[in-house]
TrEMBL record:
The gene is prfB. Methylated by PrmC. Methylation increases the termination efficiency of RF2. GO terms for molecular function: translation release factor activity, codon specific. It comes from Litorimonas cladophorae. Transmembrane segments: none annotated. PROSITE patterns: RF_PROK_I. This is Peptide chain release factor 2.
Amino acid sequence: MQERSKLESSFAAIRKIETELADNVELAELAEMDDDAELVDAAADALTKTKSAAAAAELIALMSGEADANNCFVEIHPGAGGTEAQDWAEMVLRMYMRWANSRGMKTELLEAQDGDGAGIKSATLRIKGENAFGWMKTESGVHRLVRISPYDSSARRHTSFASVWVFPEIDDTIEIDIDESDCRVDTYRASGAGGQHINKTDSAVRITHEPSGIVVQCQSDRSQHKNRSQAWDMLRARLYEEELRKREEEAQSLADSKTDIGWGHQIRSYVLQPYQMVKDLRTGVETSDTSGVLDGKLDDFMAAALSARVGVDSEP
């Protein structure tokens, strides 16, 4: 029902745009015939607004996948490089939190492990909001940073990598069967961001699904029971995302981007020195506004990546 409603809404938006386009083109033609400069300007403004509405409708249409409307989980891990890479992973985490908040979405840090001196060794973020997974699903992959390292006394330029893995939160209407005998459940003392208040007890939970190698962990709550329940939900979501991924034969292999955090697998480069540029290596979209991007201005990159995936998500 939800997918049907979304499709009907998209068709209604398209029909409205078609009508407005025809009306505005006719208005522009009449204005030119009458040599009415003021009316020509009004028609041009109306056509510009129609163009913006068409772009917005296109984005909605691109988010018609079966899980696109759902909330999502975002896992972030640094590549090799110690403190430098761990600091970059924390910057990526902040970037996505800023992006989500700018769109009125809510974020919840479910798990974070402090880095060695700075940054993070891992983090799992939940983003709640309309089409959260639809927006975020193209962000999975390796993100590359080039900058003068603040941790290098010689002020040399460093290249760092961080991997991002995005998967949808699923509800009770989607059945995912998990054989608990295939899973190993570990508890440990929470630490790092989100866990300072519960360090005295083994409240954090880690579940390893041995057949797939998928590992999820949660330490956001004081209660081990609640963390365990959340971890099982995350595991179900990861297994569901894995099934969705298998259907996307034409999409870039997300498994490759997760297992090799380095050269050849990056989806986007963030260069802060010797010049400033962020470039998406899949779509060619780029900007010199590096500060804006790191503060969450990601819509242009996401929209272009979604457009590039037309036809992939709609495959049976």
